[in-house]
UniProtKB/TrEMBL annotation:
Gene3D superfamilies: Vaccinia Virus protein VP39. This is Methyltransferase domain-containing protein. CDD domains: AdoMet_MTases. The lineage of its organism: Bacteria, Pseudomonadati, Bacteroidota, Sphingobacteriia, Sphingobacteriales. It comes from Pedobacter quisquiliarum. It comes from the Bacteria.
Length: 202
């Protein structure tokens, strides 16, 4: 839909994902606080990378579960080892593919992709896989660097506008229910399956 699909970031960039300044630069604590989850939610972090979000979310769902989904073998090995070192028994590392999450059908309350959607090689097929994985009331959250803000110093192909995200997701059976503007660098965009939704802006 008139957008360049960005190349997938290599796991060689793990140090950048785990940089000490990330919490402040992106206000990740606020992003995690705003997640629409409860203590028993089942969450999927797709394109989990180093697990920066997955392992923090796991602490918010002590009676639930977090799937850390990755396609890169180096990332999967890292996630498995770190999960063991943190003794987080509610995190399950899962290998997906370029067209599928690999998640069980109707199993997910919240699926998040943090700076990942713009890299999907087959976005249409992947969104259908996400729809299958979500429970009937499940939600999809995209955190994407703001294409509308020139001050966000990220390559253009790795940023997305709200308009472009809405255009692509609405064409694939999703409706936006929250447009969060509270993060310094990223959009916080929550979607539901097309069947039911009421737009909410904050």
């Amino acid at each position: 839909m008139d957008r360049e699909i960005a190349s997938v970031m290599s796991f060689d960039g793990v140090d950048w994902l785990e940089r000490n300044s990330r919490t402040t630069e992106e206000n990740t604590n606020l992003a995690i606080k705003k997640l629409p989850i409860t203590k028993n939610s089942v969450v999927a972090d797709v394109g989990a990378g180093s697990g920066f979000y997955a392992f923090r979310i796991a602490k918010r769902v002590p009676e639930g579960k977090v799937y850390a989904v990755e396609i890169q073998d180096d990332a999967i090995k890292y996630l498995v080892e770190k999960s063991k070192s943190l003794n987080l028994n509610n995190v399950q590392v899962l290998k997906g593919s370029i067209k599928s999450t690999g998640l069980p059908d109707s199993s997910i309350d919240l699926l998040i992709m943090v700076d990942v959607y713009h890299e999907l090689e087959f976005p249409m097929e992947y969104l259908q896989s996400i729809k299958r994985a979500l429970k009937p009331t499940g939600k999809l959250l995209l955190l994407e660097y703001k294409a509308e803000d020139p001050a966000v110093e990220i390559k253009a192909a790795h940023k997305m506008s709200v308009k472009q995200v809405q255009r692509e997701l609405s064409a694939n059976g999703f409706r936006m229910v929250q447009q969060g503007s509270f993060l310094p660098l990223q959009h916080f965009l929550v979607f539901e399956k097309q069947e039911s939704a009421n737009i909410k802006r904050k």
